[in-house]
Structure formats: structure tokens, C-alpha cells
Amino acid sequence: MSLRETINNDVKEAMKAKDAKKRDALRLLTSAFKQIEVDERKELSDEDVIKIIQTQIKRRNDAATQYRYAGRDDLLQIELDEIEIYTPYLPAQLSDEELSNALKEIIKNVGATTAKDMGKVMGAAKELAGKADGKRINECVKSLLA
């Protein structure tokens, strides 16, 4: 069963359980899937679905930060709840040690030695997409090449 089918089934389960919060959050996610399919005229793979989920989580985190600064705890909680609902659909995230080891291997393979080689490393680190946030990868590469 594809990830998208799993999410669609979870929408149905949330409807049956009368869980409006989860139902609405997952409906927002499925509408994002449909929007991409219509805009790009393609069938989404699990990898595409994961990228969309990551984008939605990033948007929620950005909004949550803004709500926190504005003192809008009611809206902040909605964003945090949606993040909590979306996160289980992502692959398991690499620990800091696993990420560091994977990046050390990539750095060795591309022959990077200085911070000027960061572009090469980041390009090769695309294989880690979905397993670690881009910001975490970037920070770890900076520290390893410093």
C-alpha cells in the first residue's frame, strides 16, 4: 500500500472516529497532493508524497514560530498539532551520529576538504532527503568541513 493510500485510509478512520482535528489536518495534506498532481500533471510517488509532507511540516514550523512571537497560543497549538499528525508518515529520522557518519562518507567520496566544497557535498547528500531535514544536513556539513 502506498503512503498516499495509507493517508487516505487514515482520513476515513478519523471520520469514523469523529476525530475532526486529525481529519481536517489530513484533508489539508491530501489537497496539497491533488494540487501538485494537477499543477505538474503527474502521478505522485511515495518519494513525492514525503517531500510534500516535509514541506507542509516546514510551513507549520514557520507559522508556529510566528504565532509564538505574536503570543497567539491558540493558533500555535493548531500548528503544533498538525505537525504531530504529519510526522508519523515520514521515514525514521537519522540520529545526529548516524547523520554525521553518513556525511563523513559522502565527504570522503566527493573529496571535499574545505567549506568551499560544500556545494558538492550538499548535492551528493540528496540521498539523505527524507531521512534528515535539510537544515540539519547543512549544519552538520558546515561543522564537518570547518
What would the keywords be for this entry?
2 domains; globular; 146 residues; Hypothetical Protein Yqey, Chain: A, domain1; 7 helices; Arc Repressor Mutant, subunit A
Give a structural overview.
With 146 residues, this protein is mainly α. It folds into two domains: 3-89, Uncharacterised protein YqeY/AIM41, N-terminal domain (Hypothetical Protein Yqey, Chain: A, domain1, Orthogonal Bundle), CATH 1.10.1510.10; 96-145, Arc Repressor Mutant, subunit A, CATH 1.10.10. The protein has seven helices and no strands. The chain has helices at 3-16, 20-40, 46-70, 73-86, 96-110, 118-124, 134-145. The longest helix has 25 residues, at 46-70. The relative contact order is 0.10.
Topology:
Layout: H1 3-16, H2 20-40, H3 46-70, H4 73-86, H5 96-110, H6 118-124, H7 134-145
Helix pairs in contact: 1-2, 2-4, 3-4, 5-7
Q: Quick summary of this structure?
A:
Helix 3 runs antiparallel to helix 4 (73-86) and helix 5 (96-110) packs across helix 7 (134-145).
